[in-house]
Amino acid sequence: xxxxxxxxxxSGFIGTNLVQHYVDLGCEVLNLDVxxxxxxxxxxxxxxIDILDLDRLRAATQAFQPELMFHMAARTDLAGSSVADxxxxxxxxxNVVDVARELAALRGVVFASSMLVCELGYLPRxxxxxxxTTPYGESKVLGEGIVRREAAGAIPWVIARPTSxxxxxxxxxxxxxxxxxxxxxxxxxxxxxVRRSYGFVYNAVFILxxxxxxxxHDAAGRVFYVADYEPVELRAWAEKIRRAMNAPRIRDxxxxxxxxxxxxxxxxxxxxxxxxxxxxxxxxxxxxEAVYDLEQTRALCGELPVGxxxxxxxxxxxxxxx
Length: 322
What we know:
By secondary structure, the protein is an alpha/beta fold. It folds into two domains: 159 residues, 3-Layer(aba) Sandwich (Rossmann fold), CATH 3.40.50; 75 residues, no CATH class. 40% of the residues lie in helices and 15% in strands. The protein has eleven helices and 13 strands. The longest helix is centred in the middle third of the chain and has 17 residues. It is globular. The mean pLDDT is 97.
């Protein structure tokens, strides 16, 4: 069994769960991140390293000599005005490839990309069919290109594109969604059914671990979406969350009202409030169906360990304690 696991961005949401997964397996785990761990129990696994600092990144990886790497570190918000604001997603990727090529014991690297290499709801024809609509998405397209050009023939690699992932240690936007349901503030557009490929974080970690196990073989040089295999219907998912929380009933309201509230949220953003409950951008996302083809992920990784009802129960219990 692989014993030394390096996670860049292991203080982030998915990274925190990835670190815990391998700690639970008894592995030696190193988290390289500019931010301290979300989980205070991970403090002993953390080194404060910026992936843009090539010399310190090289020194840390050479000292640790990992057998597997997960490159999760990234700037993930959508507030940047240009690709230049997302150097971590381009130069940072190049730095990780650079140091990985020098690691004698390394079996391979799982590089985290994003579903937003394409417009939300757009189903790409193949892994090279990109249609980003944000500077963040553009930066992830460039990052994938760096992996393909600079890692090819040098290290085994696989690219993972997580979709909308939720669960313990999450933050905006999905913790906000759970909180809104809990307080009876979630309003659903009347008569609208939207299906989404969401992913519970324990299942996402399971998929990432399977990709790592196969990075030298069936997964090598390929791209996999990371989500639960069966999409959720948003209204039904919200209702399951409501019941698990014993929350007030969900109100179905006319779409016109939600558009008014979204415009009010836009105005709040212009006044400097960064995270209003609703905005035109969030409403558009809420109304966009996005179901991805996960058959090749299922074929490689097998069935997922946690169903949606259990996942909601786990998440609600975690929220009560955090």
